[in-house]
Design brief:
Layout lengths: L2 H13 L2 H8 L3 H15 L4 E4 L2 E4 L1 H24 L7 E7 L3 H14 L4 E7 L2 H9 L5 E6 L4 H10 L2 E9 L2 E5 L20 E4 L22 E4 L2 H10 L4 E3 L5 H4 L3 E5 L6 E8 L6 H12 L3
Parallel strand pairs: 3-4, 3-5, 8-9
Antiparallel strand pairs: 1-2, 5-12, 6-12, 7-10, 7-11
Helix pairs in contact: 1-2, 1-4, 5-10
């Protein structure tokens, strides 16, 4: 097994076709196909399944790809340290629930390690996809929360995927509302007081279970529910409809807007916000730098 073969596998997986991968790698299609087959034979696994519609990753291929990415990342770091080269494009990916501090830390990371070439990804996505991204090593870090309601289910899923939860801080539940909301002058808000206002939350796709919700599940049934996919839409509706959402209370005026405020929510369990990593993956220098930046915004 060589680093070159690992690069071939990663490129084919990214492009989805042998033809495009061969063009990107500047080699012939037969050479690329043979190299991958030799690697599959040596490792005694089937990385790609050949179908009438092209090639797709097998289940064991997905696992192998995660480790291949990690090896290539570590090789790049070694080249950077000992050969005095850039080691190619710096690559880093983090998957997160919709937290402003996760974005701020990502900005700091790029300012620190952006250099001339980089390939960084910030995925604000659904809870199940965050877990899947880290499990398959597409993302080095995933950011989400646990509380009394969801922790039994999520910790079981994390354990089955070889993932570890690291707590960053404990947050008291807050509601995000418009500065002009009728309840904006309250020092603390109850669920009963919110009953007549639209509740805004991030949809979780086919895994739209209460356990995967980014917002705290409440035993109080909400009469008006609106689900959205992105942060901007949620805040626009929140202002326009006098709606609300439940959050950690960590607010950033640059990202969330000066018209949004956070007010403590009564009678709900604390949120343990943290990050998940794969137990078989070492934290890279980029990952460590990102977490250091993250902690700075949570002090």
């Amino acid at each position: 097994m060589t680093l070159q073969q690992l690069k071939y596998v990663v490129t084919v997986a990214e492009t989805g076709t042998i033809t495009e991968a061969a063009n990107r790698l500047y080699i012939s299609q037969p050479s690329l196909t043979n190299a991958i087959r030799e690697l599959e034979k040596e490792m005694k696994i089937t990385i790609f399944l050949r179908t009438n519609k092209g090639i797709i990753l097998s289940k064991e291929g997905e696992d192998f790809l995660g480790y291949a990415r990690q090896v290539l990342e570590q090789a790049a770091i070694l080249e950077d340290k000992y050969k005095g080269t850039s080691g190619g494009k710096k690559k880093f990916c983090v998957s997160t629930q919709h937290y402003s501090f996760a974005v701020n830390a990502f900005v700091d990371l790029i300012k620190t390690y952006g250099q001339d070439e980089y390939d960084f990804s910030l995925r604000e996505t659904q809870t199940y996809e965050i877990i899947e991204d880290v499990a398959k090593m597409r993302s080095e870090i995933g950011i989400l929360f646990l509380n009394n309601f969801n922790e039994t289910v999520l910790e079981k899923i994390l354990k089955s995927n070889g993932l570890i939860f690291h707590q960053l801080f404990v947050a008291k539940p807050h509601v995000f509302i418009s500065r002009r909301h009728p309840l904006a002058d309250h020092k603390i808000i109850t669920n009963e007081e919110l009953d007549d206002y639209p509740y805004l939350s991030f949809e979780q796709g086919e895994h739209n279970s209460f356990y995967f919700s980014e917002e705290i599940f409440s035993v109080s049934e909400r009469k008006k529910n609106i689900r959205v996919r992105d942060r901007a839409t949620l805040f626009n509706l929140l202002i326009g409809l006098n709606g609300y959402t439940v959050c950690s209370g960590v607010i950033d005026k640059k990202l969330n807007g000066k018209d949004i405020i956070a007010v403590p929510l009564a009678d709900e369990s604390d949120m343990r916000i943290g990050y998940i990593t794969h137990k078989k993956r070492m934290l890279s220098r980029l990952g460590t730098t990102y977490l250091d930046a993250l902690k700075k915004y949570l002090q």
